Known about the structure:
This protein is mainly beta. The chain has one helix at residues 65-74; strands at 2-5, 18-23, 27-34, 39-47, 53-61, 78-83, 97-103.
Amino acid sequence: MIELWVPPIRRLPPGQQAVPMDVGDDHATFDTYDLATQHCTTHNYYRDSDGTLRHGSGSFRYIWPAECDLMAQLAGLELESRFADWHRAAFTSESSNHVSVWRKPL
């Protein structure tokens, strides 16, 4: 069983590479995407009380639910269920997360 987010790249207009994730008075977080390599970098900017700015970032490769299914299949597992959240809401093309359960066939 895993829980993962579904990348919000549908929010990217043509030619845009960044998606704002959280913006406040003293911070901003946005993700930049390379759609060809499925690479994402999360950028965090913080404004300290003295006005200075700090930046931190982390990079990763995102995967789609179908890729998770393929990796599970290669490990000898099959998909048992997939939901949008821990409350078992239906997983749809609009879901921002997925909770997926695989099992070893009998």
